[in-house]
DNA sequence: CGTTATATAGCACGACTGTGCTACAAAGCA
DNA sequence: TGCTTTGTAGCACAGTCGTGCTATATAACG
């Protein structure tokens, strides 16, 4: 038939339909039929692009992960460590409608991956990527004297905080505004800086150098 | 027929079957038929106790919430603030198999509540209860000089950390042992205490009294 | 032109779903 | 004793599901 649009473009359209259905009706209602209807395609046509349902779902899940990756990678360079980390973290939080949608879909897929083996590698990939990002951010902060030196533990803490905020934002979008989410992130970063300074003052066994040794701005624990 | 067992007991048995199926096959496979088979009952018999599926699910969800409440309420009294809070938090984390099961089921129900209105009041109830518990714990810590005075923000932070850890434990039970989860909780509590001491030292505007004014034990940020 | 690959459409099958309904056995009560 | 309530069982209906399959129309290529 008419190669009127690029097949990859069609796949992206279909993926968009998947995400809309998942958001509106839940993952369990994202049947091949419902997705085809949402995309304005026949069932047979959809199955031309995705032979099976799990293929369709895996592709949609991957596209969400990639979109998040792209957004973080696309951040403007920022020399100030604290500012760079904070912006990165905010980019990972569901602060606007687009990210809220991604976040809900991520949660749905993540939950299903608990018993759907086909989704598990993807889920683990996303988890590992975020874990690594948290590790890198804590490393940077620690080097700048803005976080304690026990990097793995602090990375785990930050990672859990991040995903917890994401879950809460999905559960109660009314209670979790962009402002309240950002405030908690800022509070956590302030807290890490204070912990680090305190550790250096007393033990002094903290080997962290210091690009801005005295200077997390803002009141600690605001 | 034979009133051989208490009807309430039967309902609890059926609830147990629901939880087993949800854990093993996911919430979307917890059909009336599957639950009946798991419970060793006929479909019609099950429907004698739960007229509709959503009634069954709501009951099962509620039972999970109540079990968590009971466990926290059943904690032995503990005069030391820090110890008491830490024990409470550990009680809320999926550290053993029973709590892991509850946690997975909680996650499944919570996710479904995003588009299933019947589950939403229950989900909100659970959320609010945990939120209130976090608020109370931070209040206690703050009064004891073991947490900063900005209670609402710190409560939100702790709440998110808690749910984030729960999600992570459900996603990657292998990576999140009871030890690693406990360590992160301890790390967070240590951090809060350090933040509080630092705030009092510099600003001094911290009105917190002090049941053990100098004394969070353990190294900060272990 | 004809041939082939691509894209769209839609039907059919078997499986599974929730629930309405009837049938029947046993217990409680008259 | 008989009658009513309660518990158990299972069938039937209408609906949805994923997917195998065929049919057809257009674009690309010979």
Polypeptide structure, described:
2 copies of one chain form a homodimer. By secondary structure, chain A is mainly alpha-helical. Chain A contains 9 helices and no strands. In chain A, helix 1 (7-25) packs across helix 4 (53-73), helix 2 crosses helix 3 (43-49) and helix 5 packs antiparallel against helix 9 (178-202). The longest helix of chain A is centred in the last third of the chain and has 25 residues, at 178-202. Chain A is elongated and about 70 Å long. The termini of chain A are far apart. Chains A and B meet through helix 6, helix 7, helix 8 and helix 9 of A and helix 6, helix 7, helix 8 and helix 9 of B. Chain A binds a DNA duplex (30 and 30 nucleotides) through residues 1-4, 7, 10, 31-33, 41-49, 51-53.
Oligomer state of the chains in this structure: homodimer
* Biggest sheet details of chain A: none
Shape of chain A: elongated
Which bin fits the share of residues in helices of chain A? 55-70%
Number of beta strands of chain A = 0
Helical segment count of chain A = 9
Indicate the mean pLDDT of chain A. Answer: 89
Tell me the greatest interface.
Answer: A-B, 55 and 58 residues
Radius of gyration of CA atoms of chain A, rounded to a whole number: 21 Å
The stretches of 5 or more residues of chain A where confidence is low (pLDDT under 50) are 206-222
Which class do the helix and strand fractions of chain A yield?
mainly alpha
Instruction: Report the portion of residues of chain A in β strands.
Output: under 5%
Distance between the termini of chain A: 62 Å
Strand-and-helix sequence of chain A, N→C? HHHHHHHHH
């Amino acid at each position: 038939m008419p190669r009127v649009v690029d097949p990859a473009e069609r796949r992206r359209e279909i993926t968009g339909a998947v995400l809309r259905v998942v958001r509106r009706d839940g993952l369990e209602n994202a049947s091949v039929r419902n997705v085809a209807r949402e995309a304005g395609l026949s069932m047979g046509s959809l199955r031309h692009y995705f032979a099976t349902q799990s293929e369709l779902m895996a592709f949609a899940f991957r596209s969400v992960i990639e979109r998040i990756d792209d957004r973080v990678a696309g951040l403007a360079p920022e020399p100030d460590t604290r500012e760079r980390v904070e912006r990165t973290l905010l980019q990972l939080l569901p602060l606007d409608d687009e990210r809220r949608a991604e976040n809900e879909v991520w949660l749905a897929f993540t939950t299903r991956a608990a018993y759907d083996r086909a989704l598990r590698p993807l889920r683990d990939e996303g988890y590992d990527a975020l874990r690594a990002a948290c590790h890198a951010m804590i490393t940077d902060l620690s080097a700048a004297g803005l976080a304690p030196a026990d990097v793995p533990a602090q990375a785990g803490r930050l990672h859990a905080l991040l995903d917890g905020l994401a879950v809460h934002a999905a559960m109660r979008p009314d209670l979790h505004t962009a402002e309240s989410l950002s405030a908690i992130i800022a509070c956590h970063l302030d807290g890490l800086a204070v912990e680090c300074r305190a550790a250096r003052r007393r033990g002094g066994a903290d080997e962290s150098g210091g690009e801005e040794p005295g200077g997390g701005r803002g009141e600690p624990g605001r």
